[in-house]
Amino acid sequence: MVTRRIRTILLAVLTALALSGAVAAPAVAGPDPDDLYNSAQRHFAAGDDAAGRADLRALIGAAPDDAEAIALQALWSHYAGDRPAVDDAMRRLAGLDPARAHGTRRVMDAIGAAVGTLPNPLPALIGPQTAIVVLGYGLLPDGALRPELVHRLNAAWVQAVAAPFSRVVLTGGNPQNGVAEADAMAGFLIGRGIPASRIIVENRAGSTVQNALFSTDLLRDAGLTSAVVVTSPNHIRRAVADFIVAGTAVVGAMVSLEQLVSNLPPPSRAGQRGIYLDATRTFRLAASR
């Protein structure tokens, strides 16, 4: 009984001292913003955008000035169709980082334009300031072209013949047997009569995001102002979004005929997930940190 009374008295004294500031209360560790950010990105990649957005809300609550997280929250709220959340995130972002807010809005516009893109098997009428950008596809182990890439190159050849003064940018790395996609693509088109002087080879890209970023740099260096993007029907909308976000003015979206009809309708919301994932990375929002 005496021991219990002493404990009660000591607890009361310690509580009074803590309230007075004489003794510091033990610190409670909050959530780590980077852990929450990484968890959110994992959820988005896995298809659980609700969990990802919940992680970001917790992150922003703990670190309200994290502009990167707020931009990511705006974009995935846009994917979810949550207009109040988009507006709130954009308002916060505009106050913290106007340039990033402008870029985030541009990403949303690019995604909207890409979703509305109609795959087109017919060549565009373009002038010499518009490039023809052809996206690569994985080679066979011996470095030979897969049929999917041949289909893309046949479409590119038609566009190149229809626009004889336009440069042709071939983008793709991922070498097989010492041959990068873009180098194999160049050999195919040169063999079909496209002059090597028209061709610009970008042979480092390992993804659609890198296709867009690296090719955009080459277009700027060459003084080219716009592009017709050439790829497969099931890939064209993601590619268009990435190129627009990267800073390329896309004036045409040419595709091969294979699987064209099934890819004419706009993608469902679930089918847009890959477009959003790629666009956030092209916008250089970290996949992890």
Query: What's the main sheet like?
Result: 5 strands, parallel
The amount of beta strand, in percent, is 5-15%
- Rounded average pLDDT: 92
Based on secondary structure, the structural category is alpha/beta
> How many distinct helices?
11
**Strand order in the largest sheet:** 3-2-1-4-5
Reading the helices and strands in chain order gives HHHHHHEHEHEHEHEH
- What is the helical fraction, as a range of percent? 40-55%
What is the number of E strands? Answer: 5
Q: C-alpha Rg, in Å? A: 26 Å
Silhouette: elongated
| Poorly predicted spans | 6-19, 22-26
Amino-to-carboxy terminus distance: 55 Å
Question: What distinguishing features does this structure have?
Answer:
elongated, alpha/beta, single chain, 5-stranded parallel beta sheet, 289 residues
